[in-house]
TrEMBL record, chains A, B:
Record NCBIfam families: poly_P_AMP_trns
GO BP, one annotated term: polyphosphate metabolic process
A GO molecular-function descriptor: polyphosphate:AMP phosphotransferase activity
Alphabetized SUPFAM superfamilies for the sequence: P-loop containing nucleoside triphosphate hydrolases (SSF52540)
PANTHER family xrefs: POLYPHOSPHATE:AMP PHOSPHOTRANSFERASE, POLYPHOSPHATE:AMP PHOSPHOTRANSFERASE-RELATED
Residues of the Polyphosphate kinase-2-related domain: 11-233, 270-492
Protein name, UniProt field: Polyphosphate:AMP phosphotransferase
Length: 494, 494
């Protein structure tokens, strides 16, 4: 893997000067086009041996191109806000928007790289590699250009480089204890690096190993590769087209659909008020339990318009301290959100430890309204199932309790509720043209919802399918399921 | 001040039940209209004595209204991200967008409230009060409805309340050491509170003192006040109109304008390359100085199109580590930014300690392009001068070094540069129709720029007016001024 990067590649100064000028001009031109098109981001991951020139390359790329549209993302150890959330939250919030370039240091590769020798961490490392593969797949599937450079130094050259740096009082500070430790266990570290690189090579995001010894060589080599890759990406057909070639789902052959089979009507509950109060008391106790401080809740509400999502949410929040929860209503994405992969706008609302976020509609819009209205291509919403499962698994891994509710009503009940709303002056705004249009697509929503439940109801994040023609029944069922989920998680030992 | 709030107000249960239903319905209706209009936020500040019901009121408001459009902002002690920036940064980033309601606990009033007795803090307290007045003025001038409630308890009632809470094992945890300390020094604390309330009363954001003893009374009282205030605010003429009544600035009587008087042409610099390298080395040394870790840099570039802002910025970034700086190009605001006061989109980019943010165009757009194109009303851009001075003073207070550059070229030079850009294929995108239109308004920009410098060049954040017909001269001058500013700040003892 590193053979070619130990050959002692070098470029003389004259050649460098000649080629640099042309390269720089071409890079600037490509960057202008990237910004103008604005339909994908470029993510450049810089990793490699110590003192192999990662920082220098980042500076040079920013110097060659227009620094206004480049962000350099250096991930230090997580700060408080980051440590209180799933590990990849900080990568998500730093993703460069479409049309710009992000240069990433100490990225998602930083942690696992240096601790392979610890037996204890083996499982985490495996998990991390899977996460990396999925993140990069998601990004490239979304159209991002992901370029990963590994700056390599042979053992001899690393030794020499560290010695030179240490000899000069102006650069001695750059050699850290970790660097020396790395050199001491060079062979083992190189093996681990090779393993990591091999296992995280993917068709659309493969590693490019570059020898880091000669500054001219590594600069021209990486600059040229960035240029070629960006131009190649720009030359493709529109990003959308490229991804639209997946076979759509077929309805079940006997026509039976999961969401048609739910019992919807329930008898009135005589002691509703008492039951509600008892459940709210239980919920309040659970989130004030000291064990809850290491957890968080993400609750998701989906269902037809007027299914009673808002009312159910208010029965939850009524039990909570307002400082502890946040309700996020999902409407059309803002333009900052449109410049990112679709999951970005949900990642940004992931709660920190001890808190609850309740989503009124959610990432499932991708496989419901966006599928039905054609806002997402078949390839996009088909891969969303897996991306969503992974997103929820990451939440679960970090101790976040994911609870998902599908509130089900029938068409008659919806009509009655629409009419009731229209009769009340200030509720009239809640019924829009769109609601009536959605109603015409009832069947499509049942089909898409059934596919959704089938593909995304998992042990860690099951769908609770709740008949909601009777509002009282729905609210009691929602609160019960939520309390049960929190309670069983608090009891779990992990 | 607190006389009426010690009368023992109370509302019986029957009256409460009757009035609550109507109030709730009216609040919901007002909230729907607020969201629909979407042209101002409601900011409800909850402060007061310990155990006077602040948390209960927040929960109740969220329960009465639609929690999806309410955010509850509880400010705990600053976390690392917040502590590395000016104190008000965390308030700015949490401001509720237009059309929504934010309920603020432990707000900008939290710190100064309890430490008035410390002589040592007197100056900070004075400073903080000024900041509060300015923040609230800015928010209300921008159309926000700011409602501040002080929940009061007399000494006897506070004593009784704490005793009751402590007696019940279920509520004993709610009584903190601070609460007891507060009670012990009740009289003094009440005096301090009165002083704070008096000094932070403003026409558009006055305090409303409410007795916190009886839960029914305080709930109805605050609910009704919120309702009336929101409805009153909704009933006004459009927010824009209300603010448009300020006398515009007059040009100077003798027609002499500051920015017309700058020397623009400079002789070529013979040893430009050496000078540039020396300055870049100096800059690099300054930002790696250990003292710089307690500071940060905000550099601002303004000037006519093609004045050489981008080139000057690249000469700065060329001296820096890419991980340490960020260049923020200011284009049209995103829709998330439009839902906030105009300074919000700059506050969000304020660097943390040890870092540099370089703005390519800036908040000065408010008094330049927005003034000239009529995007801001005269009242809006006229008050912007003071708001900007305050913003920069806050940066300076927090150790941020603010350096502002106006790069000046003449009309002939601009024309030559436009034409040169059009001749280069990939630079053609840099010249737009808008650039040509702006050129026609040259005189307006000179006038607005002159007014701007006159009103915003301060000792802590002076404008550097730099003749830029000669690019080399401009770059050397920019780097010199930047280095001087950092150096003198690092030497300053404070």
């Amino acid at each position: 893997m590193f053979e070619s990067a130990e050959l002692g590649h070098a470029i003389d100064k004259t050649t460098y000067k000649e080629r640099e000028a042309a390269l720089r001009e071409a890079l600037l031109a490509a960057q202008v086009e990237l910004k103008r098109r604005g339909d994908f981001p470029v993510i450049i991951v810089l990793a490699g041996m110590p003192a192999a020139g990662k920082g220098e390359i980042a500076n040079l790329l920013a110097e060659w191109m227009d620094p206004r549209h480049i962000s350099t993302l250096a991930f230090d150890p997580p700060n408080d806000e980051e440590a209180a959330r799933p590990p990849f939250w900080r990568f998500w919030r730093a993703l460069p928007p479409k049309g710009t370039i992000g240069i990433v240091f100490g990225s998602w590769y930083a942690d696992p790289l240096w601790h392979w020798d610890s037996e204890r961490h083996q499982v985490q490392i495996e998990r991390r590699i899977e996460r990396i593969l999925r993140l990069e797949k998601l990004l490239t599937d979304d159209g991002a250009l992901v370029l990963k450079f590994w700056l390599h130094l042979s053992e001899d050259r690393l030794k020499k480089r560290l010695k030179t740096l240490e000899a000069d009082p102006l650069t001695a500070w750059r050699v850290s204890k970790e660097d020396k430790h790395f050199l001491k266990h060079y062979e083992q570290n190189a093996q681990h690096a090779e393993q990591l690189l091999t296992r995280t090579n993917q068709a659309d995001s493969s590693w490019r190993v570059v020898e880091g010894w000669d500054a001219n060589y590594r600069a021209l080599s990486i600059g040229q590769q960035v240029l070629d890759a960006v131009n190649h990406h720009l030359a493709r057909d529109s990003i959308k087209q490229r991804r639209a070639d997946a076979a759509p789902l077929q309805p079940s052959i006997d026509g039976v659909r999961l969401l048609d089979t739910l019992p919807l009507g329930h008898a009135p509950i005589k002691d509703y008020k008492q039951q509600l109060e008892a459940l709210q008391g239980r919920l309040n106790g659970l989130v004030r339990d000291s064990r809850f401080a290491r957890h968080a809740v993400v609750a998701v509400f989906e269902g037809m318009d007027a299914a009673g999502k808002g009312g159910a949410i208010r029965r939850i929040t009524g039990a909570l301290d307002a400082r502890q929860y946040r309700v996020v209503p999902i409407a059309a994405p803002t333009d900052e959100e449109k410049a990112q992969p679709y999951l970005w706008r949900f990642w940004r609302h992931v709660p920190s430890c001890g808190r609850l976020t309740i989503f009124d509609r959610s990432w499932y819009g991708r496989v419901l309204v966006e599928r039905i209205e054609g806002f997402a291509t078949p390839a996009e919403w088909l891969r969303a199932y897996g991306e969503i499962n992974d997103f929820e698994a990451q939440l679960d891994d970090a101790g976040v309790i994911v609870v998902k509710f599908w509130l089900a009503i029938d068409k008659d009940e919806q009509l009655a509720r629409f009419k009731a709303r229209e009769a009340i002056d200030w509720k009239r705004f809640k019924i829009t043209e769109e609601d009536w249009r959605n109603r015409d697509k009832w069947d499509d929503y049942i089909a898409a919802g059934s596919d959704m439940v089938e593909r995304t109801s998992t042990t860690i994040a099951p769908w609770h399918l709740i008949g909601a023609n009777n509002k009282q029944h729905a609210r009691i069922a929602v609160l019960t399921a939520l309390c049960d989920a929190i309670e069983s998680r608090l009891k779990r030992k992990d």
